[in-house]
């Protein structure tokens, strides 16, 4: 089976699966040995050094950064990898803190502000939104988290290499796509975050970016890369995620997995969640 055929089989859910005594889901598939990295005591260091070889000499090379990334299921793992990689760049980071406030239609906003002080608002994290604290260095890659100006390439998901870290703007060079190589400026913006868990709308004034030596599988959709490391400290958790990860590259030479399984499940197996009814509904949209 060729790499292209295997990738399509992953997407279609036709790679033979099995279950294990500790996990009865019969969707655990074997990853080809040629794609596997060995488990080590420090898996983050292993996946980073594999995807970013010779980093100390090449961290400022935009082509080098453009063609590679680590992909992992959760934001927690993305943050761990990005923190590790940023520390490898010489110099101290510049830290940007957000300005957070709450807005509510409640009749007693003063009570809410007392219950949810600024320090609590600062601690909140939301998918697709910048953190309260962002640490960056010149030459680090970042991803834009909002559509700012699509006509010049500033779209949600655009990757850039940082060129300048100012108080009011971040300047970066777009990596990849139609606007590859264009230098742009990113301002702070005010984001309105409405989460059902909280009885208020959070207003966060921050640069709409995050580091992107690594990105979540969901954020990687639409990216085409030459070198991808798929880091799975836990299996994927939703339909089609494994296919999204493996289809970011066109050849097997550019893909490596590092799998960390629990419950005595072999480290050459991972889950491939594919709901066949999704294909039935797609083929028969009226049903």
UniProtKB/TrEMBL annotation:
Residues 119-164 form the DNA helicase Pif1-like 2B domain. InterPro entries: P-loop_NTPase, Pif1-like_2B_dom. One of its GO terms (cellular component) is replication fork. CDD domains: SF1_C_RecD. It comes from the Eukaryota. One of its GO terms (biological process) is DNA replication. This is DNA helicase Pif1-like 2B domain-containing protein. It comes from Linum tenue.
